[in-house]
Amino acid sequence: MTPADWRALIEAYLDGRLSAEAFMRRFVEAWQAARGGVPQAIAGLQPHVEAFEAQVNEAREEGAVNDDELRQAAERALYNLHEDISVAPHTFDRTRAREEIRRFRVQMTGCAGIGCAIALIWVALCVLQIYFVSEWIQQAFDWGAWPSAVVGFILAFVPVLGNVLAFLGATQEGWPAWIAAIVFFAAPAATLFSGWTRWRRLGR
To answer: How far apart are CA 150 and CA 160, in angstroms?
Structure first.
């Protein structure tokens, strides 16, 4: 039972909707079902319910036992239960926690697989971009391989400029313009957008 259920049970007894004996029976059933996992206020009420149950069993006549002490204990428990709920409005739900952890693991596994694929594509695009930027610089300025490679490596990572130079280098090497445009403009934009949307979803 939740704290709200315990509160409703006690209120039903105090309001007269349940007799003391009916309250006792329902309390004992709920206590046994809870197996000790109850709020502190309910744990404090349990000895009084147990004592009342013993009195009822001894009297063997329903309604013959005075329930004033039980009623006072129930009032205190109800007050303390309100205090417990105001201090800790959310109880720890192990089942829900396990479900959340399982769902998080599934999401992380899926994101990790897609993230690896995006990373591999990005690395391949970077390698191609560095290569074709270096080739374009070597052809355009008639530089040696090493200077062209160093400058090409730097320029390849400059946004837009690196893409344009790689596009020029690829078409210079005989690539069709539309393929070069897809590889050096559309593909980087797609991988960036995909990674950004995945990050946004994970952040939520």
So the answer is: 18
> How far apart are alpha carbons 167 and 172 in whole angstroms?
8
Burial (CB count <10 Å: 0-12, 13-18, 19+), residue 77: buried
| Of residues 161 and 197, more confidently modeled | 161
For residue 186, give Cα distances in angstroms to 36, 129, 189, 203.
61, 13, 5, 26
Judged by DSSP in three states, 27 sits in helix
Strand stretches in the chain, DSSP E: none
160: left (phi over 0), alpha (psi -120 to 50) or beta: left
Long-range contacts of 192-198 (CB under 8 A, 24+ apart): 194/114, 194/118, 195/115, 195/118, 198/111, 198/114, 198/115, 198/118
Q: Report pLDDT digits (tens) over 39-90.
A: 888 888 889 988 888 888 887 655 567 888 888 999 998 888 877 655 444 4
Q: Are 188 and 156 in contact (CB under 8 A)?
A: no
